[in-house]
Design goal:
The protein is an all-alpha fold. Helix content is 68%, strand content 0%. The chain has seven helices and no strands.
Length: 192
């Protein structure tokens, strides 16, 4: 990631120069690395939950109802969250969010998880976007996430090279109308 894209750059644009540019580059690199590391952690969390569900499936009722099966899955996910809490010292709510995001339908979270792997989407932003679209079907949620997370583009519509991840302001500015557009179209279909 270019330092100038992260708010640095030389010249008189209010950016930092010299050592400051290097420091900004380090901060940006660490954040990108953290997003990538969180994606690896989510992959491991998903494997842990799947193993718990498989290993303890014999403890589930032989012919469970939907409610019974949901309770079994919730119990496995709760165990996973507690294991993560013990291993990391994170607050239980953060561990529960990690488990929740790790076990979401792959179609729903593909755009945010791909962005995390590239170091462009933080865990917090991935959770926020997935929570905002949780009431939608997986494909609609993924389409909204793709539109919200698209890279900044130049006048010709080509992504600008070397840019940092989206700012919070750009993220929020994109998310609001996407959700409004979806709800507007959904209401229109309901009236037909």
């Amino acid at each position: 990631v270019g330092v100038g894209a992260r708010g640095g750059g030389g010249g008189g644009g209010g950016g930092v120069g010299g050592r400051g540019e290097r420091a900004v580059g380090v901060v940006g690199g660490v954040e990108a690395g953290r997003a990538w590391a969180d994606s690896v952690s989510l992959d491991a969390t998903a494997r842990m939950v799947a193993e718990l569900e498989s290993d303890f499936s014999d403890l589930a009722v032989e012919r469970p109802t939907v409610k019974g099966w949901t309770r079994f899955l919730r119990s496995c996910r709760s165990v996973a969250a507690r294991e993560i809490q013990v291993a990391t010292g994170l607050p239980i709510t953060q561990c529960q969010r990690r488990v929740w995001l790790a076990v979401c339908e792959p179609e729903r979270v593909r755009p945010v998880r791909d962005g995390m792997r590239l170091g462009l989407v933080t865990f917090a932003r991935a959770v926020a976007l997935t929570e905002a679209t949780a009431h939608l079907d997986a494909l609609t949620a993924a389409a909204i996430a793709t539109r919200v997370l698209r890279p900044l583009t130049g006048p010709a519509g080509v992504p600008l090279p070397g840019l940092a991840p989206l700012s919070q302001a750009t993220f929020a500015t994109r998310l609001r109308p996407q959700m409004g557009l979806h709800h507007g179209l959904g209401g229109e279909e309901a009236r037909r």
